[in-house]
Records
---
Amino acid sequence: MAGRYKPKINHNSEFDLDLAPLLAVMVKLVPVLLLSSAFVQMMIIETELPQVVQDAIAKQEQTATPATISMTLDNKTGVSIVINDQGKEQIKLINLNEKNTFDFEKIHQVAQEIKKSHPGVFKIELNPAASVQYKDIVKIMDEVRKSKSKEIRFPIKNEKSGESTSTDYMFPEVIFTNMLEG
Amino acid sequence: MKRVRFKPEIKRTQSFSLNITSMTDMFTILLVFLLQTFASAEVQIDPVEGLRLPSSTTEKNPVTGVKISLTNSALTIETQLLAQLQNNEFIGGAIDPNDSSFIKPLFEALQKINNNKDAKEKPGKILFQADQELPYSVLRKVMYTASMAGFPNIKLVTVVGN
C-alpha cells in the first residue's frame, strides 16, 4: 500500500529579505526630517498655567490689597525680598555665595517658605540692578516659578468646584517693575 | 614565442545582489534620531548668529509674535538691523537724546508693524531673543521701548537644557 505523500521541507533553508523598498522609504524620509528638525530646541518663558492656578491668580487680582512680593537683584550684594502683606513689611536677604554669584538654591528655599506663608500669591515683582546678567535673571525666574521638590506642594482652591487641591507653582507671574523707570 | 597578457574572463551578463542590511540599520538609527528632534511647534525660531540664549526649565512652546533679537553687537527686528552696540551701549544715535532708555529705530519699526492692519503679530506680542551675557540695563531699554510702542507682552526666548 502506498504511503501518504509527505513533501520534504527543509527547515534550515535561508532566504534574503528584500530591504530595497524599506531603504527607498527611508532615503525619502531622512531629507524631509532633516529639513524640519530643530537641533536647538527653543522655548519661551510665559505664564500658561493650569486653569485652577489661573483662577487663583484672577482671584488674587480681585483682592483689594493683595500681598506683594518684591525681589531686588544686585550682583554685588545679593537678593533682597520684601513681602508687604496688608501694610506689614518683612524683608529677607540672601547674600551671594562663596563664588560671588547668586545663591540659587537658597533663593529657591526662601521662595518655598514665602509661598507656604502666602499660598494665594502668584505674582512676584523683579527689580534687577543694571549690571545683572540676563542668564542670572532667567535662572532666578526658574527658581521661583515652580517647586523642584515633589513633596513640597502648595494648597490651592478650585474656584469653580470649591475643592482643595495642590500645585507645584510658586510665583509663575514675574513683572519687571523697574522696566519703565527710564 | 610572444607572451600573451592574461585576460580574466569577465561575464558581462553576471548579476549580483548588494547587501543593504547595514545601510538599512544606519538609516533606521538616523530616522529615530531625526524623529526625536522633529520640530512640532507652531512657530519656528531660527537662532541668530553670535547669540547665546540662556537656558531655562520653561516648557512653553513659542507663539506668534514680532521677533526681536539682541546680541552684544546688534539689535535686529526679524532680519532687519536696527541699531548697533558697543560695550553694551547703543551707538550711532539710536538712543533718544531726551530719554536714555528710548531706542528710536526700534520704536519706529514697531510702530510700522502696529499700523500695518494685515500684520499677523497684532496682539502686541514680542519674542525676545537676547544674549545671556548682556546686562539688564541693555535689555531694559528694549523692553521699555517695546512697551512704549504698544507691545507690552514680551516673551523671553530660551533654550532647553544647557
---
Amino acid sequence: MKTIGGCLVFEYFYLVFIAAIGAIQAAVALNGLMGISFFNRKIYAYFFMFITLGPVVTAFFTWNERNPTGVIEGSEQFYLFMLAIVSAIGFTLVLSSFLKHSSLRNNNVLYDGLEALKQVTFFQALRHKIIKKK
Amino acid sequence: MIAIDENIFLWINGLAGNEAFFDWLLKGIANDYLVIVGSCLVLLVLWVWGADGRQRDRNQKAVISASLSLGLAQGFVSTLNAFYFRPRPFTELPTNLLFYQPTDSSFPSNSVAIVFAITFAILLTNRRIGGFLFILACFHAFSRVYVGVHYPFDVLTGAAGGIFIAFIATKIIKALEKWLNIVMVLAHKLYIA
C-alpha cells in the first residue's frame, strides 16, 4: 500500500485530533473531572461531543468515496494517530487549565491521580505538588 | 478447504450490488480507518472512565493490555505476510468489488486482527464496552468479505489471531504487574492516570 500525498496525512491527523478532543470532553463530563472540562455544565460537553465526533465519524465513513485510492500505511497511521492523540491531550490540558483557572482556584488538592482533577485543573494540581515538595 | 473458502466468499460477495443502502453502509464500515480509529478512541475514553479510582485503575490496565495487543497483532500479521502471500480474491475470482484494490497479502486480515485484539483485551475487563466493540469488530470482519477484499478464512484467521494475542497480552501484563504498578504510581503523581 502507498501513501498518497501530504493532504491525506494532514486530513487523517486533524480528524483524529478533533475526534479525540470531543471524546475526552464527553468522558471527563461523564466522570465529573471538571478540572479538564472546557465547560461548566455537562450538557454543553455532550453537545460539543456531537458537533465534533459527528462530522469526524462521517468523514471516516466516507473516506474511500473522497479518496478512492488514498491509503495511509499501517505504521504511518499508528504514528499519526499517536501524534494526534498526544496533541489533543496537551491541547485539552492547556485550554481547560486556562478556562477553569479562576473558577477552581480556591479548591484544595485532596487526591492523587485523575481523581484530583475533579476539583482543580491539571496545572493547579501540578503547582500544588511542587509547592508541597518545597 | 480453499474451495470451501472461495465458495463462501462468492456467496457473501454475491450479496453486494443488490441493495445500494447495504453497499454504502458496509463500504463505510469496511474501510481501514473508521473501526480502528473508533476502537482506539474508545481506549482513550476508557483511560479516564471509572466511578472511582479502583475501577479507573482496572480500566487503565485494560487499555495498556489493549495497546500491547494492538502492537503484537500488527507484528503477527507482518510476520505471516513475510512468509506467505495470498492474492486478493478480486485477482482470482469474479468479484463485486466495492473498494479500492489493496496490493498487500490477503491472508490474514490486518485490520480484523487489530480490531479483535483490542476488543478482546477490553472484553476481559469491561464486558459492556468490550461487547460493543465486539459487535463493531464482527461487522467490520463481515464487511471486508462483502466488499471483496478478503476471503472468509482471512478474516477468521485475523480474528482468531487477534483473540489469541489479546490473551497473551493480558498474561504479559499480569506477569509484569509489579513493574506496571510502579509506572502507574508515577503516572498518578503526574495526574495523568
